[in-house]
Amino acid sequence: CLSRGLGDVYKRQIQYLRKNCLSMSLPAIAQHFHYTPEQFEAHLQRHTGRNFQSYAQEVQINHALMLLQNPELNIYQIAESCGYISADEFFRAFQDKFHLSPAEYRNQFL
């Protein structure tokens, strides 16, 4: 079935994106699938309802939530591991999403 084959391609693209969006740019990911960045972003928008930046931010935050469970890691290490340019950027993104700092979240929920 052709639609099933397309579904498999889409699943592979999303898996690749989830795995690599913290370390690769939109142009690099698009090139991997032989798309222009604009084509890949339109494809992503059509299938997820989100653009690349929004999708990558969600992956970053979800990765941070996982890493916050490890008390051995400090907040700065988590920010760096999640691909944030600075700890301040991480704090702002986390605060915007959860209305708590990463440390407050860790203390309250873990």
Give your account of this protein's structure.
The chain has helices at 2-20, 26-32, 37-48, 52-68, 75-81, 87-98, 102-109. It contains 7 helices and no strands. Helix 2 packs across helix 3 and helix 5 (75-81) packs across helix 6. The protein is mainly alpha-helical and 110 residues long.
Based on CA inertia axes, which overall geometry fits? elongated
Q: Mean of residue pLDDT? A: 90
Q: What letter string, H or E per element, gives the SSE order?
A: HHHHHHH
Q: How many helices?
A: 7
How far is the N terminus from the C terminus? 46 Å
Taking Cα atoms only, what radius of gyration do you get, to the nearest Å?
A: 16 Å
Low-pLDDT ranges = none
Largest sheet: none
> Strand pairing plus helix content: what structural class?
mainly alpha
Helix content range of the residues, please? over 70%
DSSP strand content: under 5%
Number of strands: 0
Q: Which keywords apply here?
A:
110 residues; mainly alpha; 7 helices; elongated
Helix-strand layout with pairing:
Elements: H1 2-20, H2 26-32, H3 37-48, H4 52-68, H5 75-81, H6 87-98, H7 102-109
Helix pairs in contact: 2-3, 5-6
Question: How would you briefly describe this protein structure?
Answer:
Helix content is 75%, strand content 0%.
